[in-house]
Design a protein that fits this description.
Elements lengths: L26 H10 L10 E4 L7 H9 L3 E4 L7 H13 L4 E3 L7 H11 L6 E8 L19 H5 L25 H18 L8 E7 L11 E7 L5 E6 L11 E6 L4 E5 L2 E5 L21 H11 L7 H20 L3 E4 L4 E2 L3 H4 L13
Parallel strand pairs: 1-2, 2-3, 4-7
Antiparallel strand pairs: 4-8, 5-6, 5-11, 6-7, 8-9, 9-10, 11-12
Helix pairs in contact: 2-3, 3-8, 4-6, 6-8
């Protein structure tokens, strides 16, 4: 994705070198990861692009930051909230440029929609609707040895161990909650991120989250098939996040819709920008109103910021706050009750069981 912009690229796979006979997550395996990825930390490499499964976002991101590299990382930022905060802190501590792959911020329709909402064209926003894809089921899966070109022990890495199945890796991992976050986490960094952008919530999060989900009854995937979360923010604004077609909230459609107290709304999705009344889209923004800078393209924005040292459109803290909606939604749905959240301390209030889901104990010798 960066090939056309005067930068030399080198692709390294940390999961599929010639296979070695690992017997578990040991210190030797951690050393193996370091050796395999050492090329990324060379002094003549300025930036890295991380495109690993969610459970492998935090460790290479922190290592890259410690090595002084600027980082383009895919969304969601992290596999859990504790990992996300560690990533944000590492990026800040080492003065790195970070761009998250929430590329909708680089599209004109999404930028205009967020600017109109931010500048009060809807009056007070009372409700936000975020429509995401419905989850999937795996069907029968064959458990067996991994292919020789895949170092499966390394692929599992810091996450809980599960036996190899083709439907668990590569394009399928996001539907297994040990390695991904289902459609909720795959898309919250897109449409949920835009919802935050329009509201000016890039540095904060909800105060309460509750939700219900339907989980697969068979197969090896355990991410929700259908889900509906409600996140409540300061001032009483509710954000409803659901899979499109959910019978509980049939009015929610794909994308992001902000609804004002007066019933006016703005809705944006890929290829669609609508409003009620339609005239809202044609009201000019003055030079004194909040304006977001126009991106030359999401990857180009990252490379420009590597050179200028200005912040990108989707920096790490912003991505962490966008991901927090989905992480907290998963916790509330899995616990089966409403959770209260302090967005300043990033602690769940008065619920030790739910709090244990904020992070995971890495397997074996893996750690941040």
């Amino acid at each position: 994705m960066f090939r056309s912009w005067r930068c030399a690229m080198w692709t390294v796979s940390i999961f599929a070198p010639p296979r070695k006979p690992w017997t578990g997550a040991t210190a030797a395996q951690a050393a193996r990861f370091t050796a395999t990825s050492a090329s990324c930390w060379r002094a003549d490499i300025d930036a890295v692009s991380l495109a690993t499964p969610d459970h492998w976002h935090a460790i290479p991101a922190v290592l890259a930051a410690q090595s002084g590299k600027d980082i383009y990382g895919e969304k969601p930022l992290s596999h859990n909230l504790r990992d996300g905060r560690a990533m944000v802190q590492a990026v800040a501590r080492h003065d790195c440029i970070w761009q998250t792959g929430s590329w909708q911020r680089s599209q004109d329709d999404f930028r205009l929609a967020a600017e109109l909402v931010r500048n009060g064209r809807l009056g007070r926003v009372a409700r936000i609707e975020v429509g995401l894809p419905t989850g999937l089921t795996s069907g029968p899966a064959v458990i067996g040895p991994p292919p020789p070109e895949l170092d499966y022990e390394l692929w599992v890495g810091p996450a809980p161990w599960e036996p190899y199945a083709q439907r668990r890796v590569h394009g399928n991992w996001r539907h297994d909650l040990n390695y991904g976050g289902g459609q909720l986490m795959d898309w919250i960094g897109h449409h949920g991120d835009i919802a935050h952008w329009g509201m000016g919530w890039d540095l904060t999060g909800p105060l309460e989250v509750e939700g219900q989900a339907t989980y697969p009854a068979e197969g090896i995937w355990d991410a929700p098939i259908s889900y509906h979360c409600v996140a409540r923010y300061l001032g009483g604004v509710e954000m409803h996040i659901a899979d499109v077609g959910n019978a509980e909230v049939p009015e929610i459609r794909s994308g992001t819709r902000w609804i004002g107290e007066n019933g006016h709304w703005i809705w944006v999705d890929r290829g669609t920008l609508q409003a009620e009344p339609a005239s809202l889209l044609h009201e000019p923004l003055s030079s004194t109103e909040v304006r977001f800078y126009r991106s030359p393209g999401h990857q180009r924005n990252f490379l420009d910021c590597v050179k200028s040292r200005q912040s990108t459109l989707a920096p790490a803290e912003t991505a962490h706050r966008s991901a927090s909606i989905g992480h907290l939604g998963h916790i509330a749905m899995r616990e089966g009750r409403k959770i209260r959240w302090d967005p300043q301390t990033e602690q769940i209030i008065g619920d030790p069981s739910a709090s244990r889901r904020l992070g995971e104990v890495p397997r074996g010798s893996w750690s941040l």
